[in-house]
Amino acid sequence: MAYVLDDFMAKVVAKNAGELEFHQAVHEVVESVIPFIEENPKYEHGRILERVVEPERVLMFRVPWLDDTGDIQVNRGFRIEMNSAIGPYKGGLRFHPTVNLGILKFLAFEQVFKNSLTTLPMGGGKGGSDFDPKGKSDNEVMKFCQSFMLELSRHIGPNTDVPAGDIGVGGREIGFLFGMYKRIRNEFTGVLTGKDLNWGGSLIRPEATGYGTVYFAENMLNFKGDSIKGKTCVVSGSGNVAQYTIEKVNDLGGKCVTLSDSGGYIYDPEGIDAEKLAYVMHLKNVKRGRIKEYADKYGVEYFAGQRPWGVKCDVAFPSATQNEINEDKAKLLIANGCFVVAEGANMPSVPEAIEVYLKNKILYGPAKAANAGGVAVSGLEMSQNSLRLSWTREEVDERLFNIMKSIHETCVKYGKESDDYVNYVDGANIGGFVKIADSMLAQGVV
Ligand code: NDP
Ligand code: 2IT
Fold first, then answer.
1. Which of 77, 113, 191, 221 is at a distance of 20 to 30 A from 314, taking alpha carbons?
2. Range of 213's domain?
3. Do residues 174 and 94 touch, judged by C-beta distance below 8 A?
4. What does the DSSP 8-state code read for residue 420?
5. What is the CA(50)–ligand 2 centre distance, in A?
6. Which of the four pLDDT bands, split at 50, 70 and 90, describes residue 341?
7. What is the model's pTM?
8. What is the 3-state secondary structure (H, E, C) of 327-362?
9. Side-chain-facing half-sphere of 41: CA atoms under 13 Å
10. In CATH, what number is assigned to the domain containing residue 62?
11. Which pLDDT band holds residue 2 (cuts at 50, 70, 90)?
12. Residue 304 pLDDT > 80, yes or no?
């Protein structure tokens, strides 16, 4: 009997009550792959869909730590080990007060298909905590990371589960986590990615998500005989992904005019050049300040409490968080001339916004394809750790570039419609699914 989307989703919703973001992520994938499964009934016989929406393992744990006043704080820690069909669980850690089980399950689910698209042998996972690093001292962040790792270290390992960064987890946090893992296990291994260069990190890993997203946009544009050169781009967020998106857009001759954080956005019509970007990196990565300070420094406008989607542009790079573009904002982007959306963030567009992109046949690169460069270079970091050597910047960048090209080709293969429009949503979902599903079939009922 063929799958019916609504019936399948009703079961997922009943079994995972209240996990709205997880439902949203599953719905998008299942909608794409049901027609493909109808043509390939072996996947239905193998109950791949039923299995793939059920995490292999969910870990939830208490994270107690002492703050600078000597008071005891308690956070909740998570690791979702979603799917290991094609490799050890791999995916980031998010530290943000909004983190809950449903958000991490959506992220882990997306990660499974994203990692499959990279061509590298990585399963999917995600973790994190409702800990808020904002406003905490370095000492408090370290105390938290150490307590978090005390429990997490029982469950991870270089051949089992390899976490990395995400929102609120950058080089500083990876350092504290790595130090504690090493101390607990008395092992120097590639158990985390995004490490510093001095202790096993890879060149280009900090840049990889932003660079990769721009490479993906460039691939979509090249496919249409166009390029980023001369394009005006709108970027949300001002963290790791946003920063290196701007660096690569500048490299390729485009111009980025916005940045945001949870306080609001800045609009710099002249463009955020290398010098201004260096200021942003210092502001955000060292001073840990607010994006409003950019407006004060460079005399540009700041829009408190708003997102940048009303700014006229050719290309949009949402690079902050999930569900940051609603239906109205998608319509506004297109009305203002935007014809490329490349998602650096995970699931930044609500389903109704995606419908608007597809109906208007714009170039829409969904997150699991467009932002896969980050985890791809994490995979390259794992390879270098296993080989106990380091590749050059050029070598890693070239591999990243080729991986993004190959992801684009996979999307075209599975997503090209009869009028030649490439539906990258179907392309990424089906392209990511095939390898997982075939591997699960080959490995039996596990
Ligand atoms: P960072 O923590 O470096 O930066 C996050 C940025 O997004 C900050 O500017 C932050 O503002 C803003 N932001 C976060 N949450 C919200 C919110 N609820 N509302 C408004 N703004 C918000 O994270 P990254 O740059 O690493 O991650 C950004 C996105 O990219 C996420 O969706 C992440 O999952 C995705 N991603 C990251 C990868 C990576 O390698 N790092 C790989 C693939 C995807 P503020 O400081 O005010 O909170
Ligand atoms: O969402 C993501 O792909 C990441 N946060 C990066 C994960 C990783 O393992 O590098």
1. 113
2. 208-365
3. no
4. S
5. 25
6. very high
7. 0.98
8. HHHHHHHHHCCCCEEECCCCCCECHHHHHHHHHCCC
9. 2
10. 3.40.50.10860
11. confident
12. yes
